[in-house]
Amino acid sequence: MTINIAISVNEGLVMAADSLSQISAGGDVDSIHQSVEKITEIRARPIAVMINGLGEIDNRTIISLIREFEFHQYQEPAAPIRAWPVSALASNLYAFIGEKYDQAHPEKWPDLGVIVGGYSPGCFFPELYELNFAKKSLRMVIPSTQGKPTGEERIDYWGKCCALDRLYYGIDMRELIGALEIRRLTKRLIDMGRDPSEVSRKELNALLEQLHAEPSPEDEEFLDRILSVGPLMAMPARLRGMPLQEAVKFADYLGQAAIGYDRFCTGNPAVGGKLDVVAIQPDGLHWYRRKGFLKKMAYAREKAVMNDEREWMREMMGHAFRQMMGPTSNQLDKTKITELMELFGIKPPENSTEASPDTAVNGREEPGKS
């Protein structure tokens, strides 16, 4: 489990994710890690990706698969991914991870969600997409008109949402439905003359499946009454005109509330660790908070990318300079071009500074000329 949060306002998009991961063995929690990376940026794009649900596929973390996706797409500095709209990037990422997901889980489909958000080239409204691999769906979260984002101000979240449902909507419908089912299950067991504490988990699950297939009219009516007043209980959040900095603080508040709620509930926490928060605008993204080690890793990764691109630029410029130093160039042009090549760290041709063959050979005048 996890918590993913996205807040869209006029000035930008804010995305946040916690850092806790549970490792299960035989259905029980074997270990808990508190510094897992669940949100990352896409190289050289104002786009971020966050994950919820399944943590790995075939011993590869989902973040590691996103890095591999980047690696394949950025083989050339002029790669098409640089001009892709967010929708195309989300679609290609869905296909890339989906293939590995289907191979690893051909029958049983565990929950795995990937949220892609950011800005397309030349667009000033954010886009947000939910990639749900268990449901085999790719959904646009922020509405669009004629294929263009509308800039709707909104809050969305994924993962273990009970704390935020209670805080933001005033009620947690999933927990309420679960409580009604447990009440019906307990009543059914008492009517059967059984002690609920002595019934096996397998039998309880079988009875719950029966109850799912036999909805209670009384419970349905109760839920309808609750839903009718639900909008009146929702938090009156002031998203209209909210500055990006306020949206960052709001996302941080919601994330910390979800972490705190799970921390003080009974059982193993499913949300926790550091909360990473990133703010995105059309011209780039900025990390409001990111785990220190991941900052260093991101810096090293960006430095390596810059070195690769700088080397590519040297090669392209060197090729252009050598083309300019053809036989039609005079000695003065060649000298200036050689100086430029040395300035950019490009090795000039070995004969680039030799005298023109029309005027001298080995330092002497060419025979027949005076």
Strand-residue proportion: 15-25%
Largest sheet: 5 strands, antiparallel
How does the helix and strand content classify structurally? alpha+beta
The CATH homologous superfamily of the largest domain is named Aminohydrolase, N-terminal nucleophile (Ntn) domain
Overall pLDDT score: 83
As residue ranges, the low-confidence spans are 352-370
Question: Would you tell me which CATH topology of the largest domain applies?
Answer: Glutamine Phosphoribosylpyrophosphate, subunit 1, domain 1
The CATH architecture classification of the largest domain is 4-Layer Sandwich
Strand order of the largest sheet: 14-1-2-15-16
Domains counted in the coordinates: how many?
A: 3
Overview of this structure, please?
The structure is a single chain. The chain has helices at about 60-75, 85-105, 160-170, 175-190, 200-215, 215-235, 245-265, 290-325, 330-345, and strands at about 5-10, 10-15, 20-25, 30-35, 40, 45-55, 55, 60, 110-120, 125-130, 135-140, 145, 150, 155-160, 275-280, 285-290. With about 375 residues, the chain is α+β, with helices and mostly antiparallel strands. It folds into 3 domains: about 5-170 and about 235-290, 4-Layer Sandwich (Glutamine Phosphoribosylpyrophosphate, subunit 1, domain 1); about 170-235, no CATH class; about 290-355. The strands form 5 sheets. Strands 14-1-2-15-16 form a 5-stranded antiparallel sheet, covered by helices on one side. Strand 7 (about 55) and strand 8 (about 60) form a beta hairpin. Helix 4 crosses helix 5. It is elongated.
